[in-house]
Specification:
The protein is about 80% helix and about 0% strand. By secondary structure, it is mainly alpha-helical. The termini are far apart.
């Protein structure tokens, strides 16, 4: 198991150096040694999603990461939810986000932000606004705070007069 951890550190180094090919090879090697190494599945999911643009393999690896990590690796819930949202699988994304919110150490601000994205896709602007505001309250990152401010302003610009009035009257 120690060899796997050392290889995983090499994966992080390769990704930091933008050597995605080497990272993928190392991840494949890790999974040959330990097919249940959930963090490797998460990273492969990320590579398939963001670099190779292969939705099916990304989804498969994120699901395996969740299965094998059993709530001990919170970032996989965020990664998988982004993939599902980007591909319009909102109901499944909501389930993954709900699971992620129950994982110790999860970035709740990002998970609520993702819930807001789903509400916005469904044209439920009031709900999206409330979720973005909640994410803002839970956030600890100055950069993410700036993003959330922009999202809140953007969603308010989509709202009609009656929706804006409900906000002002706190109905």
């Amino acid at each position: 198991m120690q060899d796997v951890e050392i290889l995983f550190l090499e994966v992080s180094k390769a990704i930091d150096q933008h050597n995605i090919g080497a990272a993928k090879q190392l991840l494949d090697e890790i999974l040959l040694i330990d097919p249940g190494y959930g963090r490797a599945h998460n990273h492969l999911g990320w590579i398939y999603e963001t670099k190779i643009k292969d939705f099916k393999n990304a989804q498969r690896h994120y699901e395996l990461a969740i299965k094998f990590c059993k709530g001990s690796y919170p970032i996989v819930y965020i990664n998988y939810a982004y993939l599902l949202i980007d591909h319009g699988q909102f109901d499944k994304a909501e389930k993954i986000i709900a699971e992620g919110l129950n994982v110790s150490g999860a970035d709740k601000a990002t998970l609520y932000y993702q819930k807001g994205k789903i509400a916005e896709h469904k044209q439920n602007f009031l709900k999206a606004l409330k979720l973005y505001q909640h994410a803002y309250q839970l956030n600890f990152s100055k950069d993410f705070q700036s993003i959330l401010k922009i999202e809140i302003q953007r969603i308010e610009s989509k709202m009609n007069f009656w929706q804006k009035l409900r906000i002002r009257l706190k109905i």
